[in-house]
Specification:
Helix content is 3%, strand content 66%. It is elongated and about 85 Å long. The protein has one domain. The protein contains one helix and six strands, in the order ββββαββ.
Length: 177
């Protein structure tokens, strides 16, 4: 006798890679009177995704991202009186209404999926940040590039046909090596 079971599962609707850029010019470094010529800037920049929302507008899938960017930088002044000047910044970056290019909401209509069941799931993120110090203006320029691969998933309930225990077969496997 066969039976049906109701199971909860995640259905992948679409996946895509997005390339996001955030550029800032002449970011003022006001903490110090004068940054000496020949100084360098280095450090780490950590990019963390804090929010990802997928929605539909005018027959398009769109996504909004919110990132927190933590910069732990330091300026090193030239010899002979070399000094390290710490700089720490935290900023919130928001990218809105980014369009999916590879898929259309028609797929969810065909499968009877509710828009409220759509979620964003991150597969991977990568980031590269280029920072150039301008000692003449006591500022720096920054070019932050973020690559993020996400998939749209939907929580769905599906009926699957169970199997009859009487028809189950167990096969023994032997090592022939």
């Amino acid at each position: 006798m066969n039976s049906c079971e109701l199971i909860n599962s995640k259905k992948v609707i679409c996946d895509e890679i997005f390339y996001l850029e955030h550029e800032e010019n002449d970011v003022s470094i006001e903490y110090f009177e004068d940054i000496p010529d020949g100084s360098t800037i280095s450090g780490t920049v950590e990019v963390t995704l804090t929010d990802c929302n997928v929605f539909v507008v005018n027959d398009l899938f769109l996504v909004n991202f919110i990132f927190v960017v933590q910069k732990e930088l330091e300026i090193t002044t030239p010899e002979p009186d070399s000094e390290i000047i710490p700089l720490e910044y935290l900023e919130r970056l928001q990218f809105e209404d980014i369009e999916f290019r590879k898929c259309s909401p028609a797929i969810i209509e065909e499968q009877g999926i509710n828009l409220n069941d759509l979620k964003c799931e991150v597969i991977r993120t990568n980031a590269r940040d280029t920072i150039e110090l301008d000692t003449d203006n006591d500022s720096f320029d920054e070019d932050l590039n973020i690559e993020i691969k996400i998939k749209i998933i939907a929580d769905v309930q599906e009926f699957i046909q169970g199997k009859d225990k009487e028809l189950e077969t167990v096969i023994n496997v032997e090592d022939v090596g």
